[in-house]
Specification:
Layout (H helix, E strand, L loop, with lengths): L5 E4 L30 H14 L3 E4 L10 H10 L3 E6 L6 H10 L3 E5 L5 H8 L4 H13 L4 E7 L7 H10 L4 E6 L4 H5 L1 H4 L3 H18 L4 E5 L19 E4 L5 E2 L19 H7 L1 H4 L17 H4 L4 H8 L15 H11 L19
Helix pairs in contact: 1-2, 2-3
The structure holds iron/sulfur cluster and FE2/S2 (inorganic) cluster (FES).
FE2/S2 (inorganic) cluster binds next to α13.
């Protein structure tokens, strides 16, 4: 069995009804609007099961994890179970008191998302006035002695400022910066034309990133994730479906990747089964595990243990069938779908207006 090394947990706002004392496998108190959340006791049970399963890392992510009142307590549970913990946050709500509590609870690492290097653009893309508070929170993270990762999603509307983004990370003394090009699911899918960079923009950004990586070597790790629409081969998404990671959603659903809820697959929940059973036997986790499910050209390809046929969510988003070869692959019979988007991104004029982001308090 492959041992999972990483449990992501998505969070929802604490205002939702989540305070009943039931454990994770009890039902009956679920409100009809779908806003049920695991209780603190429920999460504790999930974390204990995860530790027994061999999970080593706990990523508290969202939505926005700081909106849960018990995030400090759950961090402490993770620490007591020997897990390395990472808070993936918008940093809104990371005030000094909360930060000091998290430090005392044993939180190991903080990752802050920033949408740009300057206020106007960052706030416009985030859909809320948040830039100044994020920067303040980044300084607090460093002051309290945590390693800081800055996560900046790059796209057509901010990639020309990648040099300034790197300078901001340097000024904040970040230990790591992730320049993650947009993945086109959810909100980004609806804005793909306005977000996919042109070939010329990528060519301009590349030497800037390379120079910063060389200059900052040993001080700051620069991780640059290129847009896979411009690649010949797809990314090995999640290190393979249900191979290394799992996500537990606020309502107890367990997912092989955070976006997998969009796929037409049977649901798995810690309120119905143990984490061990879900990981090992559930139809959801078994659906695309390994290589046996693959169609051609993946089935007969010598890269199938390298990229695992790419991303199931991207295959579904583009073709309506999650079992197809990721259309990013140049060997895929569906590659024309990606080529059409790339052609559109390289036209002379591209509409830049964004469909507004569905906004939740504290997120982004
Ligand atoms: Fe990867 Fe499949 Fe493409 Fe081969 S055919 S490179 S396994 S996506
Ligand atoms: Fe779900 Fe790639 S994002 S498998």
């Amino acid at each position: 069995m492959v041992v999972p090394a990483n449990a992501g947990m998505n969070r929802q706002p604490v205002g939702l009804p989540c305070q009943s004392p039931s454990g994770p496998r009890e039902r009956g108190d679920e409100p009809p609007d779908g806003t049920f959340e695991l209780t603190t006791a429920g999460w504790r049970d999930v974390l204990e099961q995860a530790a027994a399963l061999g999970v080593l890392q706990l990523h508290l992510s969202g939505g926005e994890p700081l909106l849960r009142r018990d995030v400090v307590e759950l961090t402490r549970v993770g620490r007591d179970l020997g897990m390395y913990s990472n808070l993936v946050t918008s940093a809104l709500g990371l005030d000094r008191r909360r930060a000091e509590e998290l430090r005392a609870a044993g939180l190991d690492h903080v990752q802050v998302s920033v949408q740009a290097d300057e206020q106007e653009m960052s706030d416009r893309i985030a859909g809320t006035r948040s830039f100044d508070r994020k920067i303040e929170a980044c300084r607090l993270v460093k002051e309290l002695g945590w390693p800081l990762t800055l996560n900046v999603v790059l796209h057509r509307q901010n990639i020309h400022r990648v040099g300034e983004v790197l300078a901001l990370a340097e000024e904040l003394d970040a230990d790591r910066i992730e320049l993650a090009n947009t993945q086109y699911y959810g909100w980004a899918w609806h804005n793909r034309d306005a977000l996919l960079p042109s070939r010329a923009q990528l060519a301009e950004a590349e030497p800037v990133v390379d120079a910063a990586r060389a200059r900052l070597a040993g001080r700051m790790e620069v991780v640059d994730v290129l847009p896979d629409y411009y690649s010949e081969y797809p990314k090995p998404c999640m290190g393979g479906w249900a191979a290394r990671q799992l996500t537990v959603a606020p309502n107890g659903d367990v997912l092989p990747c955070p976006a997998a809820h969009a796929l037409p697959l049977p649901r798995a929940s810690v309120r119905d089964d143990t984490l061990d059973h879900i990981w090992t036997h559930s139809p959801l986790f078994e659906a695309y595990r390994g290589t046996g499910w693959m169609p051609d050209p993946c089935r007969s390809c010598d890269r199938k243990d390298v990229d695992f046929g790419g991303c199931r969510c991207q295959a579904f988003q583009l073709t309506g069938d999650a079992a197809r070869t990721d259309p990013v692959c140049h060997l895929s019979p569906d590659r024309h779908l990606v080529d059409d988007a790339v052609r559109a991104a390289n036209r002379e004029s591209v509409p830049l207006e964004l469909v507004p982001r569905p906004h939740r308090a504290g997120a982004s």
